Amino acid sequence: MERTTEELTGLLRSLVAKMKAYQHAQTVMYFDAATVAPPGSAEDRGKTLAVFSEVTYGLQTGEETGKLLSALRERTEELDPVTRREVSELWRDYERTKKIPMEEYVAYQVLLNEADAVWHKAKTESDWPAFEPYMEKIVAFNRKLAGWLAPEKKPYDALLDEYERGLTMEKCDAFFAVLRERLVPLIRQIAEKGKQPEDIFAGKDFPVEQQRKLSDWLMAAIGIDREYCAIGETEHPFTDGSSKHDVRITTHYYVNDPLSSLFSVVHEGGHALYELHVADGLQDTVLAGGVSMGIHESQSRFFENIIGRSRGFIRNLLPELRELFPAQMAGVTEEDLYRAANVARPSLIRTEADELTYSLHVMLRYELEKQLMDGSLAVADLPAAWNAKVKEYLGLDVPDDRSGVLQDSHWSGGAIGYFPSYALGSAYGAQLLAKMKESMDVDAVVASGDLTPVLDWLTERIWSKGSLYDPQVIFEQAAEAPFDPTYYTDYLIGKYSALYSL
Amino acid sequence: MERTTEELTGLLRSLVAKMKAYQHAQTVMYFDAATVAPPGSAEDRGKTLAVFSEVTYGLQTGEETGKLLSALRERTEELDPVTRREVSELWRDYERTKKIPMEEYVAYQVLLNEADAVWHKAKTESDWPAFEPYMEKIVAFNRKLAGWLAPEKKPYDALLDEYERGLTMEKCDAFFAVLRERLVPLIRQIAEKGKQPEDIFAGKDFPVEQQRKLSDWLMAAIGIDREYCAIGETEHPFTDGSSKHDVRITTHYYVNDPLSSLFSVVHEGGHALYELHVADGLQDTVLAGGVSMGIHESQSRFFENIIGRSRGFIRNLLPELRELFPAQMAGVTEEDLYRAANVARPSLIRTEADELTYSLHVMLRYELEKQLMDGSLAVADLPAAWNAKVKEYLGLDVPDDRSGVLQDSHWSGGAIGYFPSYALGSAYGAQLLAKMKESMDVDAVVASGDLTPVLDWLTERIWSKGSLYDPQVIFEQAAEAPFDPTYYTDYLIGKYSALYSL
Which DSSP category does A500 fall into? Predict the structure, then answer.
């Protein structure tokens, strides 16, 4: 006897509820592992994740799931738009995940759990050889993964598409070429003629307890509802969201550099705002949550740079810093703080790079990943290749692998093909800003200390939509135009020419 | 075709691995909820726990599980002792859990998740009416539960047996009668004739950052391996262990009272030590972990009181306190600190009660639970009944429900019948101390600052055994004698007569 559409959607809801339960538990366990779990607990966690990924694999690719989705696909006209999109997304996952052999899928989850623990230790001890065998396995798996998912594509193209649907090396190459052409001369000009501001924080200590209070202030300042968002502390800051009612960001405090955690909190806060504002109607569906890494990074980097490093935000921040750090901030003017937040100077660490040189960090990772995936670079040669690129693009010598190839958590987390989305996101953000300015005085809104109009604009055009459309569609709906990277280069050239009086 | 014993034990291992994965995830989610999860995440967590408890229920009571256990029960002679015990424990669970209707089981897990969030808020706001409807439901469920599990028993006897197998109201009544008869006169004597020491901490602040460092020192001092044990902060301290490689304790810091967290850390540290020292051979079995609440509390209260409040421990603690709190500890002598740690004075909060009056707190909870379960006390009348008992046993007026009926997390966590194990555990500990003293100079070991001989003794006699035997068997193997509460009363009378020169 054939099932009614209502019965089928009932089964779909129950399937999605199960999927979300495992995803939720895994998100919490990941956050716990990165923040407070005892170091020796990694092996146990691996066993649990192995059990769960087997179940998850079964839910995604099982015969029952296939039958249910097929039946629903035959009645798409009867489904509401949200359910229709869910079915199409789940079907995509079903077809794709089925191509990955289950044993390999489970083994990879266990490997990543181990790799994360090994990377944490290797980074602390600047011990590349400890991490190298894991990187070997991660690269090998990703090449196989690309072959399973899209054998017709070049491996790296298949991976880029994983993080930003539709992204290719061709698009990346063109995008980075624009950045290289327009930004490298500007960076060179600053190095040659720009006068760097004094280091206003040199020799001063900013106690962690006070920096924690600053984080609370920052989260409130950008409009985060703490009822649904927590903050933790990790080596590498990240945002984890299992639903709009449970989002966590993390940061890392450096006693001698308050700006590091400050902009990290605003960056992760941007990710959090996106997750927190998905429409209520998408809650409990597979569409709840940001649509892609590129759109996600467009939000985080918008808040970190366009909002966080703006005149108006700096002006409102200053009294708070003075209250929390009266001795350290004595004599520091608004102009001093604005310049300190907007220094453009090549540096070693991506997450602490300035807005202008940031994309060079991304570009070098993109080029290395491309080579790793086409086989022209061996994992064993990665540290040397890294250091050479840093010398080439940033003019710096890398003193140790902790400040070099081991600095990011992406590769140990299995993510190859993620990095380009950071630069892409920054560029998306600049184009969105231009659009936003057509309907409001963004500077005045930021200066007012109440970001509501900005939050509303982003909620309506991006956040509320969750994963209801493809990333490119969402971007174009918001920007009312195709993507154009020159908004980004124009923005940077305008801002930094003024800052350095060029 | 019949399966071989090897095949059957292979299936058993796979079943247990699955059970442990869910238990592990739930433990982490519980810890996360109590420490860092955003407050608004409770509802999502409830949904996930509902999915998981349905799976768990299926694993415990499913047809396949029943068949597997039955087949293994037919070949007990072929099984090694660990597997044999596992099968018998799982069979017990299978038969018992099957008696609980699945919908009720799942609904109760969801209720407890909600109740926990409501209780946290109700306690902070001293708002009994907010919690009362949850307590109603919890009491109602526990009465039903008792009926399902052991319809032949009185409901409260069925629940006592849940937390300490073999415990009954008859045994509790006899035990508490001994305590009442011997301790109440001593408490009265101290109130009438004992000279109370000065409050050495009055008006002083002990910053949380420094107290956190003290916690690290304490955990090291009692021999906790931080590789496998983390510490968090919660309203109500607890210990959570999912295996000997992943144990977490929590504490609560009060700026004006360093002893509260200090002894809390040593108490939870005792629980942690037990979990951390289960034999390697029991890892990944259902027998890994403490055997019962009574034995567990015997370890935590042994460390808190017998070790932590001893002369030798106080002597070693003093230099550390002086280093962390130089101004606050100026002029405080070893004798001052020893007396401060061992004041006997009726107070309102169980977890902060002194060693002598502590069991009166437990006794009053036991009596109230007994009445709740036999129906002679209505939930609505619980706060008044609580306050009357506090007046009767401790001579104190309860100013608000936060310091009264809402103070503990046990009821909101669904645990009715747990409390007696605290007093029982304290008494077990005193008898174990007497036995330990036959083979070593415990005071000298504690004074040496290296507890290894004590840890080894407890590992051999209790900790390593996990749940390999029933609690009473483990206790009698360790003490080489049946339980006798007069060891406890003699210990307290000796200690407090000396302290108060009676």
Answer: T
**Tokens standing for residue B168:** 């009954």
Q: In the prediction, which pLDDT does A230 show?
A: 97
A 321-350 near B (Cβ less than 8 A):
none
Mutate to test the interface with A, among B13, B26, B32, B248 (most CBs of A within 10 A): B32
Q: Which residues of A touch B242 (CB under 8 A)?
A: 44
Question: Which residues pair with residue B292 across a beta bridge?
Answer: none
With beta carbons less than 8 A apart as the criterion, state whether A59 and A18 touch. yes
Q: Which two tokens stand for residue B8?
A: 């059957």
- The structure tokens listed for B148 are 């399902």
- Rounded to 5°, angle at Cα A298 from A304 and A488: 90
Residue whose C-alpha is closest to residue A386's, from A402, A410, A409: A402
Nearest 5°: CA angle at B469, between B463 and B473? 90
Annotated catalytic, A268?
A: yes
A74 close to B44: Cβ distance less than 8 angstroms: no
**Phi/psi at B258 (5° precision):** -65, -25
Residue A374 to residue B490: CA distance in whole angstroms: 78
Instruction: Identify the pLDDT of residue B1.
Output: 64
Between CA B290 and CA B278 the distance in angstroms is 8
Asked whether the beta carbons of A146 and A153 are under 8 A apart, the reply is yes
Could you tell me which residues come within 8 angstroms of residue A486 by beta carbon, excluding any fewer than 6 positions away?
A178, A182
Residue of A nearest to B232 (CA): A36
CA A34 to chain CA centroid, Å, is 16
Strand order of the sheet with strand A246-251? Answer: A229-233, A246-251, A239-243
Interval B38-87: pLDDT, tens: 999 999 999 999 999 999 999 999 999 999 999 999 999 999 999 999 99
- The domain ranges of chain A are 5-154, 169-499
A44: nearest CB among B41, B229, B246 = B246
Phi, psi (degrees; rounded to nearest 5) at A21: -65, -45
Q: How far apart are CA B327 and CA A409, in angstroms?
A: 43
CATH number for A169-499 (one of 3.30.70.1450, 3.40.109.10, 3.20.20.70, 1.10.1370.30): it is 1.10.1370.30
Cα angle B239-B236-B363, degrees, rounded to a multiple of 5:
90
ipTM of the complex: 0.90
| 502 residues of chain A, pLDDT tens digit each | 689 999 999 999 999 999 999 999 999 999 999 999 999 999 999 999 999 999 999 999 999 999 999 999 999 999 999 999 999 999 999 999 999 999 998 899 889 989 998 998 999 999 999 999 999 999 999 999 999 999 999 999 999 999 999 999 999 999 999 999 999 999 989 988 889 999 999 999 999 999 999 999 999 999 999 999 999 999 889 999 999 999 999 999 999 999 999 999 999 999 999 999 999 999 999 999 999 999 999 999 999 999 999 999 999 999 999 999 999 999 999 999 999 999 999 999 998 899 999 999 999 999 999 999 999 999 999 999 999 999 999 999 999 999 999 999 999 999 999 999 999 999 999 999 999 999 999 999 999 999 999 999 999 999 999 999 999 999 999 999 999 999 999 999 999 999 999 8
Residue B422's SS3 state is helix
Dihedral pair phi/psi, residue A248, rounded to 5°: -130, 140
Evaluated on CA atoms B399, B405, B410, B412, the torsion sign reads: negative
Q: Do A44 and B52 touch (CB under 8 A)?
A: no
Q: Are A381 and A132 in contact (CB under 8 A)?
A: no
The amino acid at A260 = S
Give the phi and the psi of residue B240 in degrees, each rounded to 5. -130, 125
